[in-house]
Design a protein that fits this description.
Helix content is about 30%, strand content about 35%. It has helices spanning about 95-115, 120-130, 140-145, 160-174; strands spanning about 1-5, 10-20, 20-30, 35-40, 45-50, 60-65, 70-80, 85-95. Strand 4 and strand 5 form a beta hairpin.
Length: about 170
Amino acid sequence: PVEREIAGGQTHQYEVTLAADSVLFAEIDQLGADITSATFGPDGTQLSSADASPGGKGTEHVRIDAKQTGTYRIDVGTAAPQPGKYRARVVEIVTARELAARAAKERAAIDKFFADRSGFVDAFVEWVKHAAIGDNFAGIDKVIGDARVFALAEAEHDVHEYLEYRNRLVKHLV
């Protein structure tokens, strides 16, 4: 890990050599500095930019998918004029194949989890459809009541059915 102070308007550059088809994961902890990040390919083309955790707190997540072997660059800058500190670290560098294998393994575990509980899941879906909410969300008012704030969460971000259901629910509520 690297911990540094950064002044407003300043940019720190870090280089890393990556093999083709590798993926770098890094994190930048904001320790008072409101950090932005940008990544660049071997030819200098900007690959990404981020300021996901404004305000000088939280962690910026950086990912570089190396399409070719070469030296990649991460720029760490400030979004606000005040100085502060940050801590940057490489979490891991893996091959794209290994990352795909992990995702497949995680998806298989999720599928198994729900398959092993299919009776419970089916009963819950039936309750949601008929007793409480229904396909058109007609009964949602019974569940929410007069709440002004309603939280939605997903058990898994890569499951299409959750996203589809959540989007339908949000459209209904808004």
